[in-house]
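Handout, section B. The chain below has 253 residues.
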Amino acid sequence: MAAKQKFTTTEYVRSLLSILLFFLLLIFFTPIILLLLILSFGKMANFVVEKIAPAVAIPVLKVAGINFKIKKHVDPIPAPAVYIINHSSTLDILTILALGLPRVRFVAKWELQYNPIFFILGRLTGQVFIRRKQSDKAVQTLKKNVQRIRKNNLTVMLAPEGSRKHPGIIGPFKKGPFRMAMDLQYPIVPIYFEGNRELSTEDFLITKSGTCTAHIYPAIDTSDWKLENLEDHINDVRNHYLKWAGIQNETFS
């Protein structure tokens, strides 16, 4: 785990203003989203994720003093696919929403539903909530959603590290995202968030000003993956993240 950041008074003020703005925007957009989803019988869920989510996240990032960039190392971005991200910062939730990727659904921790706004919006837009600490149930939940995701030609995004509280800069990768890619017969598209961890390691959304860049890399084909060699493939993918993070080697017992 990274050491606790030290923040200036200005950074605290900007962060608190950005948090306030985030919840005000959620309150403002929630009835609009509900109306759109009801009138469209749920068919505007993609519009919510692609257009409204960035409209919430990007102003919040700007108020926090964060310049958010997207750098595509592949164009067009492969879809449908399983998008995976590195997860080590409270900023990740904002940068994920700011991406505005087409037809994407997020796999999020179960506890987010304790917030009634997240619960309502998440359920109505078809997000996937898993119990991270119960790996068997998490895998079952992912498998239950495979058919729905494939039927609707959706893309799914999740963090193979599971939690942002993990050892090292890039934590150990869980099997769930990779098993899901195999079940869906989707490629894996790695997305690396550069700068998120350096700007905020706090439990709350207190951040430094700076730049965060989402690097979207070419797809990794999973069509010939087998369970027998899955661990090797996972290690290969994780090694890419270690390289992008500037780490030569990082293993865990």
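Note. Strands lie at 66-72, 82-85, 104-109, 128-130, 155-158, 188-194, 210-216. Compare this with the example in section A.
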